[in-house]
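Bug report

Summary: structure tokens for Polysaccharide export outer membrane protein differ between web form and batch submission.
Environment: batch mode, default settings.
Steps: 1) Submit the sequence below via batch. 2) Compare with the web form result.

Sequence submitted:
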Amino acid sequence: MGSIIRFLILILGVLLSGCATNRKINYFNDIAARSGTDSLQPYRQLRIQPGDVLQITITTFDKDISLIFNPNTANPTVPGGNGMDQGYLVDSSGHINLPVIGKIYVKDETTSQINDQVKQQLSQTMQNVYVSTRLVNFKVSVLGDVARPGSFRIGAERASILDALAMAGDMTSTAVRNDVMVIREVNGEKTYVTLNLNDSKTLSSPYYYLANNDVVYVKSGPGRTWPTSRLIVLLPAIISAISLVTTIVLLHK
């Protein structure tokens, strides 16, 4: 009997030793116990790079002229394509080729600056021109110790590392939160930066907001752990099981 009880206590001890502390699982531990506001670096708009696909919508009061710039409005279904992929590809030299206007240089410009550039050129021959530019192939990849690793399309121009992790189902309880890597390629050069998601200073990092084709890699810890909150939920069942086993042993003696 004593050996059985010692065995059950040993099992319970193993479960308890596998518990992950809240400080290892929570984000931004240094602000968890306080409230208020912090000054962050202003958001910087994405800069367009070769390989980006831009959806540029140009409208005027003349529908015939508008159709020249927006042929997909009249025929939205194009063989071999889909709504997200239709647009103007930024070539390796940083140019796009627009109807009537021809080639314009867009590398390292924001979508707002492209709007102004296109509108300025068209205003020389047209009036009441409206221009809207969107990056339509914005995606990020999340790999490593997350619930659902993969590549994710971003519908807006702004997405933080927290947005990407949320789309991937969040990090698991074994993930290393103070050493999350962001891999970014600009002008053919890759940059590797690690972020500490336990520290609120990460919110001010220039890598907190992601760029197109960024890769987020989450490392795994030394072993799988159980969150304390999960063990608290299971503890009554564990105690009941121990009591049941003890009762069965006593009845068969």
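Above is the batch result. After comparison, the two runs are identical; trailing whitespace caused the diff. Residues 26 and 32 are 8 Å apart (CA to CA). The chain has three domains: 2-18+227-251, 25-36+139-218, 53-135.
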